[in-house]
């Protein structure tokens, strides 16, 4: 009897993806401004096929707490950054173009896509309406529900064997998110469904996960804690 070591067949949707990440001035989805962005196209084995990066002058002071995370100061952004209207238009157009032929990957998608949408509205641009999105965080919580521990990008990179050498750099984070999505796709056969169906399923799973977390928080003496619903954009 022969013993074959083979790579499982990856779902079609995972073979070419565009991963997206932002670093910003803060965590509030309505008020945060974009400081850096990356959109990277990954091929079937996670190789980088195309990469675009942006450094943006957000038009406001970058809080020290945010600079401490991503390394960009107000002085850096003012000196070297694009004006936000041009940058947001370019980012949105690049994602729209790529989304016509492949899914967009974003780790914790409502963060990046909602901030991008609010920035577009702020500058009277048409917000991106992504048609097929893959969120590794939502997928991981669904397919490996009872795994203990944190599920941030650093922890999940290690869990799925993906190198992440510069966390909170938008390029490093985008590449890692894309590769994690591809690894999850290979490991869990139930995700081998049409991308349209998977997109719709994630919207449902995300709300279920948020409701479950809210229920847990209310049991921890937080009776007013409310679930944050909406995926991949939360407006």
Fill in the keyword field for this structure.
disordered N terminus, globular, 5 strands, 8 helices, alpha/beta, Nucleotidyltransferase, domain 5, 5-stranded mixed beta sheet, 235 residues
Notes on the protein architecture:
- The chain has a single domain (12-219), classed as Nucleotidyltransferase, domain 5 (2-Layer Sandwich), CATH 3.30.420.
- The protein is globular, with a radius of gyration of 18 Å.
- Strands 3-2-1-4-5 form a five-stranded mixed beta sheet, sandwiched between helices.
- By secondary structure, the protein is an alpha/beta fold.
- The chain contains eight helices and five strands.
Write the layout of secondary structure elements.
Layout: E1 17-24, E2 34-42, E3 48-55, H1 64-70, H2 74-80, H3 84-99, E4 104-105, H4 109-122, E5 133-134, H5 136-143, H6 153-159, H7 170-187, H8 195-219
Helix pairs in contact: 5-8
